[in-house]
Design goal:
31% of the residues lie in helices and 10% in strands. The protein is α/β, with parallel strands linked by helices.
């Protein structure tokens, strides 16, 4: 779906395509055609460098599970405005040809399609994205909700959610006062999201420091932080608005990932030839070494990266995103290699948890972040296939033993790699799994708004609650989770974000889903290995349909 809405927050010269808001709408075929007639409407923000297709696996599950109870809900996956900068020519042509090589030739080989050639956009080309901050994002969200549910009285069935960065955006949305007039509340975020919020592998906050409880300090720090923010905003509008630099270019990295997804979707069992299609240049190489090296030497030599092995297209995608291969948060439980493997020693050696005293004390590292249980194929010359999530061995009483036992089990593999590849394939769908040009200002604005810089357009974040100073001065809540509505916070059981609970940040009723990694909370398969329904979509459907 597309809405024509030139943003009042976008004043710099920009492409005409950027005057539109896009989103993907999931609804039951048996339900009402108008969103206003649905029993509930959930609008969801994707994470950093994520597009609306990132939520493709979850949306239909929520709709189906609600329909099974006789309720018709809509799942709206928002595609942030910055996606207007993307060039989809190669993906569309490759999908039509049924051959991902067409896209590779266009994006990486310099080959034209119908007289059009791919243009690598420099930071200066994208200066206008420096205006695409929190205020613009919140305003676009408002416009979508008001378009779906024009009657303010019907917005008790409007729910707002988000994954990763999108989860952190739900807090500002609930606190936002769009007309800056506290006497009028139809426009307030807590009424636009009148049914409640659903942060997924992230959490909602409005004022972590609690400065709203000390107005003089709030005014002082907002003014000081506002001056710093003005300088940051200037940088955002003059070359630093997107992660598009000579060393590390987001568009090329995301194109490489989406090419892997398209290859795995179109030819899952064919041998990967991505190493000959994607150049190992400075725009992608530092990223690949940081995420996929076997040991610290690989940071310098790059001898054990995905391109250095013989892999099927599915296995290549698994190496890029499976939690037993990739580092940091680019992780989902997709299955495991179908070949002999060896443990990595980068960034933390396998088996760290077995070290006396140190291991048990730091169990948070190997078990909850993904470090210390990662592997790579042994033989560079043997073709390595992939076993899907439902082909894993059963879990044992000893659990996963990175030293002697199974590197993984069916309790920790929850996402179907075939469906993951389909969602990541940018051909045949109007939105991408990845957002090539995430505006960095949305991140900096969020940091300022939740910290020390609420001036200018960020003054709209007015309806704050809780926080440390509020707790110390007034006995208010320590956590600053919005208190004006219902909240379903979902966390992946093997995600580092759950450890925020040690700081008292998480709501007491947060749901932690065992065995999930960062992506799994929105990509997990509808049929789970434990015989139970997929948990995240089940909890969401229940939250949307039960008072």
């Amino acid at each position: 779906m597309r809405l024509h809405y030139p943003s009042p927050y976008s004043t710099m010269a920009h492409p005409e395509a950027c005057d539109w808001i896009s989103y993907v709408r999931y609804r039951s075929k048996k339900g009402p055609e108008k969103s206003s007639d649905a029993d509930a409407v959930l609008t969801v923000q994707p994470g950093t460098f994520s597009g609306a297709a990132n939520l493709n696996p979850q949306g239909p599950q929520v709709v189906r599970k609600a329909a099974a109870t006789g309720k018709f809900v809509e799942y709206i996956s928002l595609d942030r405005r910055a996606n207007c900068a993307e060039d989809r020519t190669g993906w569309d042509a490759a999908q039509q040809a049924g051959d991902y090589h067409v896209a590779a030739d266009y994006y990486f080989g310099g080959k034209a399609i119908d007289g059009k050639s791919y243009h690598y956009q420099t930071p200066q080309d994208l200066n206008y994205l420096g205006e695409y901050g929190l205020a613009l994002t919140m305003d676009d969200w408002r416009v979508v909700i008001e378009n779906l549910l024009p009657d303010p009285g019907a917005r008790t069935k409007s729910f707002c959610g988000g994954h990763s960065l999108g989860a952190f955006l739900t807090g500002p949305m609930m606190a936002w006062d769009f007309d800056r007039n506290a006497a009028t509340t139809d426009d307030a975020g807590f009424n636009l999201c009148g049914g409640g919020i659903i942060p997924e592998d992230g959490f909602a906050m409005t004022d972590p420091a609690g400065f709203s409880g000390a107005p003089p300090l709030d005014m002082f720090f907002s003014a000081v932080g506002g001056a710093v923010k003005n300088g940051v905003d200037w940088l955002m509008k003059n070359g630093l608005g997107a992660a598009q630099w000579p060393v590390l270019a987001a568009s090329e990295i995301m194109n490489a990932y989406q090419l892997a997804g398209m290859a795995a979707d179109q030819n899952p069992d064919g041998e990967s030839d991505l190493k000959s299609l994607v150049p190992a240049d400075l725009r992608t190489e530092p990223w690949m070494r940081a995420f996929y090296g076997k040991d610290y030497l690989d940071l310098f030599t790059g001898q054990n990266l995905p391109r250095d092995f013989r892999l099927t297209n599915t296995s290549a995608l698994g190496m890029l995103f499976d939690q037993n291969s990739a580092e940091y948060v680019l992780q989902a439980g997709l299955g495991y290699y179908d070949c002999a493997t060896v443990g990595k020693t980068y960034p933390i050696p396998n088996g760290l948890a077995s070290v006396p005293i140190l291991g048990p004390t730091l169990f948070i590292i190997p078990l909850r972040v993904g470090y210390g249980q990662n592997y790579t194929p042994v033989d560079h010359n043997q073709l390595c296939g992939w076993k899907n999530y439902d082909q894993m061995p059963a879990s044992t009483i000893d659990g996963i033993d990175p030293v002697r036992g199974n590197p993984t089990d069916r309790d920790h593999e929850v996402t179907d790699i075939r469906q993951f590849a389909r969602a990541m394939n940018p051909g045949g769908q109007p939105t991408d799994f990845f957002e090539e040009y995430t505006p960095l200002r949305i991140v900096t604005d969020t940091i300022f708004a939740l910290g020390l810089g609420r001036d200018g357009e960020l003054k709209q974040l007015q309806n704050r609650s809780g926080g440390i100073l509020n707790f110390l001065l007034h006995g208010d809540r320590w956590q600053s989770t919005p208190s004006a509505g219902r909240n379903l916070t979902l966390l992946s059981g093997d995600s580092p974000l759950q450890n925020a609970g040690y700081g008292g940040i998480l709501p007491a009723n947060a749901k932690i889903i065992p065995g999930y990694r960062h992506y799994d909370v929105v990509t997990a398969a509808e049929r789970q290995n434990n015989g139970m329904p997929e948990m995240a979509s089940t909890l969401i459907a229940n939250f949307l349909t039960q008072p």
